[in-house]
Specification:
The chain is of the alpha/beta class and about 160 residues long. Helix content is about 25%, strand content about 20%.
Amino acid sequence: MNNHYYTPNPDVVHDEATWNFRLLGHEMMFTTDNGVFSKRTVDYGSRVLLGAVNLHDIPSGSILDMGCGYGPIGLSIAKTLPERHVDSVDVNERALGLAKRNAEQNLIKNVTIFTSNQYEAVTDRYAAIVTNPPVRAGKAVVDGMIAGAFDHLIAVAA
């Protein structure tokens, strides 16, 4: 049975829920479902990541949310930085559909959400890459998400 949130099509029964959560100073509405990570609330790791990053220190350029799930990290960054573009990718088709819906219901237009197994479909270079990697997918997946970032970052002169 393929029912893990880090797979393309989790084989689970739909059970959507919609709830609000405050991220980066914005009250946001999220629709989630079975087969996605942290469907009842924004997980602790994502909240810590968003609280720790200084978005205004990111050099100019687009931002990539690697393994976006239903979108809390990338969408809250896009909402906070409307002048920047955010690409959000995931392997989970159900999560991507939810991320697109969540972008629409939060009136976020500066985001592109698309399917990519890690960096397979990612062709651009980014000022920053943010991720809360799926640790349950295993070391090879997490290491690939982190190590692959180097080739997709804009070089910054020291």
